[in-house]
Amino acid sequence: MPLALRPRRLAILTLASLAATAAAAQTPAAQSPAATPDSAATGGDAADPLPRPDLSPESFPALPGGETLAWPAVESSTASDAAAGENGDIRYSVVVNGLGPLRLLGQFRQLSALWTRRGEPANRAQLERRIAEDRDLIDQLLRSVGRYGGNIAAVVTEPETAGAPVAVALSVTPGPVYTFSEITVSRPEDAIGGDPAPVVLPLLGVKPGDPVDALKVSTAEGALPIALAARGYPFAVIGAREIVVDHGTRTAVLTARVDLGRKGIFGGVRIAGQTQGYTQKHLAELPRFRPGDPYTEAGRDDLRRALIFTGLFGSVEVKPVAAGVNPDGTETIDLVATTERAPVRTIAASLGYQTVQGIRAEASWSNRNFIKPEGAFTVRGVGAEREQALRFELDKRNFKRRDQTLAFGLGFSAEQQTAYSATGATLSAALRRESNINWQKPITFSVGAEATITRQRDRSAPNDPNNTYYILALPSAITWDRSDDLLNPARGFRLTGRVSPEVSLRSGTTFSYLKAQIEGSYYQPLSDSLVAAARLHFGAIAGADRGRIAPDRRFYAGGGGSVRGYSFQQVGPRDADNNPTGGNSLTEASFELRYRFRAFGSDLGLVGFADAGNVYQSTLPSFDSLRIGAGVGVRLYTGFGPVRIDIATPVTPRPGDPRVQFYVSIGQAF
């Protein structure tokens, strides 16, 4: 016959007791492979499908009073002993009804004596004890979600067929939901801070009338020190809290004591430990706050991430240190960064492929602290079927300002393109303000100077003349970035302008011209997994005819970063031998639909795209005679950006254009 078991009442709970109960109750168990058949066969609740970490019965607090439970006398519904073996062992199945709607069935199965030991031999006394233990477990699970005063009925039905298992059914009727009637936050008598209630109450996540959800309270409690530090109270003291339950009114009162301490303002920053040559002066360039600004936890964490991002430190800890009380009652907070050095030398390599250009390999060696602090020296080499390069770079990072780089370079290169061949050397210097994944900035810029000596053969000119050019350029660029992600934007826009006044000396004749470009991209999410992206790019050269300008300074279009479906530089005017001539102006447009999903344990994407563009002999670009390409691509999203694999075909081909182009690289097309 059914045995009704009523859970005992709890008069006073400490928050620690509720937190332990809630942490276990809100942590679903990994379902046993045998769970589904038992539940399905007996019509029980479906298990909570969410994976949860392992729990143990010790995760729950002891029931109040310390009284000993009498084992329930569970009566069988038949007199058969068919399920008992020769030694009195009993096989049984278990079904529980009533916990599924509360999302507690998974937790119950992980902690249940009946469920976890159902494959072990048991006699009748052991079975009755397991039922009693599970009664207590269900009682505590119900309390963890604010349910008190419910009923638990256990029914044991012995089989009519010899050898069949005994059926154990637990039916749970949850009690009513208890709610908070009052939440009080006060300051201790010896507190130095002000009234904490206006600051702390919004952070607790509960208010009068809410269910007595122990997990919600304990989660807010754990996050309270960080939340208070984020609001300018880094030295707040969190006192004891208590929840008092009134079963007569089915309500509870939450009481907490908090000393906020003094409101903080930023002071200075210091570095200790293995400093890698960092000085206090150089460290002062990194914070995004100024002394006297209100203290925030975000500012402290940003300084820590900035130090890690230098690549000089493997471990960084930034601690707030009280530095004195100010006349207005605020407290100055200094930040002390304790660092451990990281290896500063790096070897890197990358590999790409395009159908006509072939394989392109790049390798580099770098010492990020060649000139202390943060003077990076890099040797970079490129090897490809149509391009070879060797470059030496010296970059002074965080120069006078965070994420600002003073860069010097010396490079030697050789190219064998369809339009031209070129060998040369370039000496350059630039000042760059850069975005990175640690801090994506709305405005970035670069200004610089380049001196180039190059000998180039123009394959589109009569007799393929070979000329030597001496070129002085002053390139600069500015970007306005309102996108939501540096590596994989899904919302917003980017707008970049580039200008380069150049003076060229060829065959004893000096001439000058201005090369200008503007490029914009826009990103719009259509759903959680689908993004539309578009790009426009215009370029113009004013002041010199195409034939006078060095071939590698002209505009070309076609290829993986331009109009896909066409070979590199093959969009635009061509000579009688089908060689691209380059031009004085450029138009490019692209549109993509990017679909992102998870499959095979990876973060993947599919892309459909269409590109259009052309190069013109005129100074200003137009939209005439656009060449169109279209295709599809696959993306593999990684921590350093998406790996891009595209296949495209020309929609408006000309004689000599391949039918299919294949591209592999890192990063979105735009």
Overview of this protein structure:
The chain is mainly beta. The protein has 4 domains: 171 residues, no CATH class; 81 residues, membrane protein fhac (Ubiquitin-like (UB roll), Roll), CATH 3.10.20; 78 residues, Roll (Ubiquitin-like (UB roll)); 322 residues, membrane protein fhac: a member of the omp85/tpsb transporter family (Porin, Beta Barrel). It has 9 helices and 28 strands. The protein has a 17-stranded antiparallel sheet that branches. Strands 1-4-5-3 form a 4-stranded mixed sheet. The protein has a 4-stranded mixed sheet with strand order 2-7-8-6. A hairpin with a 3-residue loop joins strand 12 and strand 13. Helix 1 crosses helix 5 and helix 6 packs across helix 7. The longest helix is centred in the first third of the chain and has 21 residues.
Summarize, please.
This protein has 670 residues and is mainly β.
How many β-strand runs? 28
The structural domain count equals 4
Distance between the termini: 72 Å
Instruction: Name the helicity range.
Output: 10-25%
| Structural class label | mainly beta
Name the poorly predicted regions.
1-86
What's the architecture of the largest domain, going by CATH?
Beta Barrel
Strand coverage percent: 35-45%
Radius of gyration over all CA atoms, rounded:
36 Å
Q: Overall pLDDT, averaged?
A: 85
* Annotation field: number of helices: 9
Question: What does the overall shape look like?
Answer: extended
How would a crystallographer describe the biggest sheet?
17 strands, antiparallel
CATH topology of the largest domain: Porin
CATH superfamily of the largest domain: membrane protein fhac: a member of the omp85/tpsb transporter family
Q: So what's the CATH class of the largest domain?
A: Mainly Beta
